[in-house]
Amino acid sequence: MSIFKSDEGEFARFERHMKPIRALNENRRLKLIRDELKKDLQLQRKGLRALKSEQAKLEQELKRFAPLQLELPLKRL
Length: 77
Description:
Shape: rod-shaped
Structural class: mainly alpha
Mean pLDDT: 87
Low-confidence stretches: none
Strand content: under 5%
Helix content: over 70%
């Protein structure tokens, strides 16, 4: 069969031509989505680390204070 005299229709030839192009576009789109998700995850991790360090600082500051002793009023029986 010659490449010039094909039984393949115009639309089938076009689809065969477009299939790898569509696959590349889809891969590019998925890569962009994946990159966005990675960035979001990195920002969330960074925020979580900041919260944990803030919590550790507050806990250290809390340990420096003397424990409170509450005085309850004495009731006569």
